[in-house]
Design goal:
single chain; hypothetical protein PF0899 fold; 4 strands; 72% helix
Amino acid sequence: MALDKLLENEAQSEIERIRAEARGRAEKIVADARERAQTLLDSRQRLLENQRQAGLVRARSAADLELNAARLTASESGVTQVYQMVEDYLGNVTSAPEYGNILSRLIQEGLQAVPDAEAIEVNPAEMNVARHLVSGVEVRENPSIKGGVRVVARGGKSGVTNTLSGRLERVKADMAPQISRLLAE
């Protein structure tokens, strides 16, 4: 019986050793699986956080773009209103007392640009003022001219139009940034 007992003890020891070894391997497998799961979880969390941050950046960028678009629209609207006010003023400037001086300068500049001028065309409402300002050149009515003159040469084939509204049109693009800046202040 002692041999049986000895064999049984030895078998029991071997079983315990195998069980312990299996438990150790199982614990290692579980630990490795937990580590891989944690690594995967951390990786997914980083990915989600990066996606969240990217979404926030996109949302901020979209909001900034929308804000800038609104500012630009407001600025353009303000510039348009300023130009409309100036055009309204220029439309009424012909009735101002100082308009004779303005028309005189417009005529002089036109004559300098076209030295061989045959005629000066002005709006019919400005004929009397223009006749007093011009000598040596025919003064004609031209209803399409408003707030200025058209100096004509070579039978009307060449000439220059010098009006206040024309001058405004020429400087609009250059003045828009300055007007926008002033409106923003």
